[in-house]
Amino acid sequence: MTTHTVAGRPRAAQRVHDVDALRGFALLGIFAVNITFMASAYPGNLVDDPAFSSPLDGAARFAVAALFSMKFYLLFSFLFGYSFVLQEDAAERAGAAFAPRMLRRAVGLFALGAGHIVLLYGGDVLTTYAVVSLVLLALHRVRDRTALTTAAGIYAVVVASLVGSALFLDRSAIMPAPEEALAAAAAQTQAMLGSPADVIGHNVGGLGLLVLQAVSLQGPTALAMFLLGMVAARRRLFSTVDGHRRLMRRMQWIGFPVGLAGGAVYAALGADGSTWGTTVSVLTAPFLTAAYVATLVRLMHTSRGAWLRTALAPVGRIALTNYLAQSAVGVLLFTGVGLGLAGQVSPPMLLVLTLVVFAAQVAVSTWWLKRHRYGPAEHVLRWCTMWRRPGS
Fold first, then answer.
1. pLDDT class for 172, splitting at 50, 70, 90?
2. Which among 41, 156, 220, 242 is least surrounded, fewest beta carbons within 10 Å?
3. CB 251: neighbour CB atoms within 10 A?
4. CA nearest to 295, candidates 242, 246, 243, 251
């Protein structure tokens, strides 16, 4: 492995496959959540589809909320911050100015996200990442202690705002009554079954809520995770796993009890439909995310678990392409553009579909990377970043 040292910090040129595998794992968890919003408009209106009210349906919803919601988004954000440092390393090795590269990358990411919202899925995260990455770029020279303190401060502000909302804000004054929410969900689900113009209208119709969520919750928590990922990359967390085994065991012993308990409370309180539930999740989801990371990394560094890295790394290596592909599959499965299954697939079957689609992505990603260096979306984004056509 070729290593460079800049400002006292080792710079590794070799790809960190654990990071790719973790990114692939994050995509699986994100899809398990996103597919519920792709399949009908009921989750977006914070109500359950009355057509699926069996105990098994309830158990599937509970599992997604407790084990997946708000956890894998944090992991994806953490890895974005980790990869930010790897991008900085690459610019250093190439002798290129880092800031212009990242500005162009942010513009490219925002453009891809905007297209994603309009054409595929209104619950996009790329536009949020693009904007928040500009803040990270402004902070990327700060010391580790400052980065960690800033991340903690951001989380404290988010939690304080949620607690204040739970105590003093009358949700009934701003949220529709359950009957109105059910009616809106039914109408929006029907719109998903219409023409391409209807589907685009449905996607764009949720833009206001997307911006509000990005400003109040997703953006700040993403920035906090970006900063944590940046510090982890500086300390080469996944390049020197043997030196961090004690830390990873601690992440498991603390993360699973706290994170699982918090996830259960979040789900029991009604998930996103409860401000108190969201508050509990914001506080405890990072613990479960950390436990997931530690467990997967430790497994991948055993003889019996090494296959997990082999399977997951190709998906994570072309994560942007796979993220967009998941939304494209959602359009083809659930909207009037494709099979028109919106409102017809039960929560347990959505979990099965998640695994089937992800297994297909594992196979296709492995096949693609044997023939190409980048995924299609990565090729476009790299072109924007480098401002020249990348190699094949």
1. low
2. 242
3. 21
4. 251
